[in-house]
Every structure is written in C-alpha cells, then in structure tokens.
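Page 47, continued from p. 46.
Same chain as before, 150 aa.
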Amino acid sequence: MNIIDPFYLYLILQLDSIKAFIETIGVLSLVGVLVASFSLLIRGSSARDTAKIYADDDSRLYKQRHAAETATAESSFRLMWKAVRISPIPLLLLAVNAFLPTSERMAALVVLPAVANNAHIQEEASEVYELAKKGLERLVTGDEAAEPAK
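Result:
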C-alpha cells in the first residue's frame, strides 16, 4: 500500500496556487512582450521617418540629428526582435499551465488508486455487496420473517 506523506499531500493541495501563479506570470509576460514589441516598432518607425526628414538638409546639425535618429531606429528594431525572440517563454508557461492538473484531479489520481487497490477495503466491499444482495433477495421474495429486528 502506498503511504502518502504530509509533504506530498501539501504539494497536491498547492497545485491550484502554483497553477494560478504560472498563469499570471505567463499572461503578464506575454502582455509585456507585446507592448514592448509594438512600442519599439512605433518608436523605430518614427525615428526612421524623422531621419529621412533630416537627411535632406546639408547642415551639420541636421546630419547629427539624422545620425542620432538612424541609430535610435536601428536600436529600437534590434530590441524589438529580442523581445520577439523571448515571446515563446510566456507561451510555454501558458502551455505548462494548461496541462498542470488541479488539486482535485491530482488528489483523485493519487488517493483513488490507493483506496481502490487496498485489500482490506476490497474485502469489506465484497461483504457489503453480499449483504446488500441478500437484502434485495428478501425484498423480492417477500420473506418478512428473515428480516433482522430493528
């Protein structure tokens, strides 16, 4: 017979909290990746468009501004691609969360087999079954005299 120790039972009961934590982290990080990607995309596009405006003028100030805006656009696009590359991490967390069992399901997976495979419980169950079967036979046959006293 399998003995369920207190720590194992504690872990089973904490599965709902672990599941909620993983789901929260997954959703928040996915939202963070999306917001960062879109904001960096917008910033990069804006800097690229501004750099095109400054590229038309030959003055020294405009050339410096053009170089600064071009560098900003390039760094924004690089950061955006880094954010996109880490986007599978929140998706992986959400996938793990989908397959993580709840406390009730895990308890059913652990406790029910331990109870159902217990020889003592099976012996008692067969005795209860026989008593129920005899009681039903008495009801069907109408044997009132064999009914036990109350």
